[in-house]
Amino acid sequence: MLTNVMLSTDDEALREKVSEFVSWVPKQLLLDMDADKVTYPKEFLQEAGRRNLLGLRFQPEWGGAGLPWTSEMVALEEIGVLGTALGCLYALVSIVGEAIHVFGTDEQKERFLKPLIKGEIGAAEGLTEPRGGSDFFAATTIARRDGDMFYLNGQKRFVVGAEGADVILVYGKVEGIEDPKKAMTAFLVERGTGVKVEHLYGLMGTRGGGTGRLVFRDAPVPMENVLGGEAGIGNGTKVFHQMMIPERMTSAGAAIGMARAAIEIAARYADKRKAFGQKIRSFEAVSFKIAESITLLDASRALNFTAAKNIDSNESNSKIRRLVSEAKKFSTDSAWTIVNNAMQVLGGIGYTDIFPVERFLRDVRLITIWTGTNEIMDLVIQHEFYKEFLADRPKGRDIEKDAAGADFTDEKVYND
């Protein structure tokens, strides 16, 4: 791939290691997940943990590898070829782990982060509610405090891993605090009393990840499970904004893994399949779809790498939010286009289960919706752009004056 120039020698070695793990994953597991015969593939996470492939970005003292975001993007692309469900379960260690790593106490890292990275326990995130999707602060899950114990009441839906996760990061508002942004708190809820999987969804794709609706009925959560401890009460808004980085970057990385797999299948097919006495890759209608797909794939990788590099460099929050949103939007939109192109190249056989492209099509559709729809990404991108753009003083040449009528200032009317 042309974007190999961005990778270090260590990244190349990591890619090989993750590729070996991906080759280990049994075909039957993928088929059984897609057929809803498997609802939570715990062995997948256990094996990834045994191979030290989980929580790559986190400090070695907690079991991580201390790698940068740029390296994690390499791993995510390789995992992505397995589809969205396994990609998401893999990413949840990075996502929930981020919250614990950044905001958690040492005791919480010992109890939750270490076993997550080892693959000994699974994680999920309870974010979306029936009455609040993109509107995060419309959440109605309430935490009532009684001494050093909270009792959680409410529900979260579309929770990947709901069926099998051992710990769930749940956002809820602490009762008695009026301002929703100050009331929002992140809880590490362990599966047990008061926590129930009320419904498992029948999904178009992304099957086998145990996606369900979680209901909390006076679920007891001790103070030590408040993310950040006592100091973490009301800190949920900060946690949420931080979490948008791993949620969206992992989506961007895994998306191009699926896209790459789909277009490689189509390219091989186009080089073998003949029509009218010649390989179909010789027809512009086919070859141009391959060309468009490879261009989108390389552009997605480059944007993902740029966003990751900015995160690693601790760039301004505004720039990071914009680039992360751009990466998520562009990579997932591109993946959707690429997989559709692959199916079009394959023709009718692509619509069958002879090739996995139809599964990729069902899987990739979701990632333009979750972790913030791509329309929400557009809102974030333009908002953060204007914030930076209008704050900067113009530098260099004033291009606006390079017009014949530039001095007719009466024509530049900005008000009604």
Task: Please provide a written account of the structure.
It is built from twelve helices and nine strands. The chain is α+β, with helices and mostly antiparallel strands and 416 residues long. Helix 5 runs antiparallel to helix 6, helix 8 (236-272) packs parallel to helix 10 and helix 10 (317-346) runs antiparallel to helix 12. It has three domains: 2-122, Orthogonal Bundle (Butyryl-Coa Dehydrogenase, subunit A, domain 1), CATH 1.10.540; 126-233, Butyryl-CoA Dehydrogenase, subunit A, domain 2; 238-391, Up-down Bundle (Butyryl-CoA Dehydrogenase, subunit A, domain 3), CATH 1.20.140.10.
Query: What level of helicity do the residues show?
Result: 40-55%
Which CATH C-level class of the largest domain is it? Mainly Alpha
Mean pLDDT: 94
Please name the fourth-level CATH homologous superfamily of the largest domain: Butyryl-CoA Dehydrogenase, subunit A, domain 3
Structural Rg: 23 Å
Number of domain units: 3
Q: State the end-to-end CA separation.
A: 53 Å
Strand count, sense and closure of the main sheet?
A: 7 strands, mixed
Strand content: 5-15%
Shape assignment: globular
Order of helices and strands: HHHHHHEEEEHEEEHEEHHHH
Query: Strand pairing plus helix content: what structural class?
Result: alpha+beta
